[in-house]
Amino acid sequence: MNMSDEEKRVINNNFVHLATSSTEGKPNVVPIGLCRTISDHELLIVDVHFKKTRENLEENPQVAIAVEALEELKAYQLKGEAKIFSQGELYEKAFEIMKEQDKVREKRVSVWKEKKSDMAERFEKLVERHHKLRPKAAVLVDVEEIYSTMR
User: Fold this and answer.
1) Which CATH number do you get for residue 116?
2) In this structure, how many other beta carbons lie within 10 angstroms of the beta carbon of residue 77?
3) Are 21 and 56 in contact (CB under 8 A)?
């Protein structure tokens, strides 16, 4: 199913929540800051810390994703099938997404420093830790269903 430009913008500019399930039906949900649309019907999620999520994806590729932009009163639920890539073109794309997000985080630190915000120091430490991380894998989600959850 093709995502609209608006749906893609909301996904690309906000945290998403990725829900997976084991084959026994035990659910797991995690917040994801590194998720981007790469086509009209595909999302690429960067796996940096997945453990249970990765196990679930290997057992059961069916996923659900929730995303919201509350200031715009927009929210969506997406459902689809995931595939894991630990090398190749999509893995390299995941690494690029990670580097792009690092630049965004660095800009936020600068803004918070200018405002003398308590968040600046905390976020700066997060950015430093993040620079040392490498993706474990790229998770490609083929979006099969999309629902607006805020009307």
Assistant:
1) 2.30.110.10
2) 16
3) yes
Give the chain's end-to-end CA distance (angstroms, integer).
20
The three-state DSSP-derived secondary structure of 13-71 is CCCEEEEEECCCCCEEEEEECCEEECCCCEEEEEECCCCHHHHHHHHCCEEEEEEEEHH
Please give the tally of structural domains in the chain: 1
Q: What is the DSSP letter of 87?
A: S
Range of the domain at 36: 5-148
**42-54 CB burial, b ≥16 within 10 A, e <16:** bbbbbbbebeebb
Q: What DSSP character marks residue 50? A: -
pLDDT digits (tens, 9 = 90+) for 96-126: 998 887 666 666 656 656 666 676 677 677 7
For the stretch 75-104, pLDDT in tens is: 999 999 999 999 999 999 998 998 887 666
Contact 45, 141 (CB under 8 A): yes
What are the backbone dihedrals phi and psi of residue 139, each rounded to the nearest 5 degrees, phi first? -115, 115
